[in-house]
Amino acid sequence: MVSVPNVKLNSGKIIPAVGLGVWKTPQNLASQIVPKALDAGYRHVDSAAIYKNEEEVSEAIASWLKKNPSVKREDIFYTSKVFDSDHGYEKTKKAIELSLEKAKSIGYIDLLLVHSPQSDYEKRHGTWMALQEAVESGKVKSIGVSNYGVKHLKELLAYPDLKIKPALNQIELHPWLTRSELVDFLQKEGIAIEAYSPLGNGKKVNDPALEPFAKKYNKTNAQILIAWSLARGFIVLPKTVTESRLLPNLESAEVKLSEEDVKKLDALDEHFVTCWDPIEYPLDSEKKEEKKD
């Protein structure tokens, strides 16, 4: 079994540093790939309401646990997210209930994230209040955000009724998109960093810049990229629906890049965004300034 490091969140909960992302994974494939990932040694699966596979992922985990009684529910870390269209206190409460209903086969959600900051202050605030209540109910163990920039995080941390800080911010990160200012802010605030699209959404996995590192460590380009995230202290979510890639991705946890090589990979940064980028979404005050202009 591959030894995968764990990260302790500010909530006190433990999250495996390598997880399986199921973005764009159809329901039937999610039902198939999740048990295979668990067989390979994964103990962390990341879904979202907008992925429309929460129920399939949860049921696949529950079914696998029944067949593998030596592994307990608390050994598996399951994440979901509240999408932008469900922002606002009442809407988010309903969205949480729906996500919990879809996860009823596994009993609770380990981590629930605000999928992005794309709404307004009142709605974002209401969403966070509903998430805090979900933690208090015990049905959600930790809460966090995704695609939040520094300004969105500062807004959240200044809520007058803030009781629970975000445990984690899930953002696109890879050597061509290092987001150094945001990463520094998160580290100073004790908020864990989770990297999605660690292979640059597949657009950078064959970049010639990776060849010297792949040769030096006798690993694939993909493994070098995943290892870079881990070397930076990030939790990382390589996505695949191909069974043959599951174990190699997980084995990236055993690749120990030198500090010098990590810095060389950092130097590739060119703010190359391969997915959506809500991190720059304007605050209400910025929208008002735009209208004045």
UniProtKB/TrEMBL annotation:
Annotated EC: 1.1.1.358
Residues binding substrate: 115
Protein name, UniProt field: 2-dehydropantolactone reductase
UniProt site (Lowers pKa of active site Tyr): 81
Cross-referenced Pfam families: Aldo_ket_red
An example Gene Ontology biological process: ketone metabolic process
Keyword tags: Oxidoreductase
Domain NADP-dependent oxidoreductase span(s) in chain numbering: 20-270
Record-annotated active site: 51 (proton donor)
Molecular-function GO term, any one: 2-dehydropantolactone reductase (A-specific) activity
InterPro entries (UniProt xref): AKR, Aldo/ket_reductase_CS, NAD(P)_OxRdtase_dom_sf, NADP_OxRdtase_dom
Transmembrane stretches, start-end: none
Catalytic activity from the UniProt record: isatin + NADPH + H(+) = 3-hydroxyindolin-2-one + NADP(+); (R)-pantolactone + NADP(+) = 2-dehydropantolactone + NADPH + H(+)
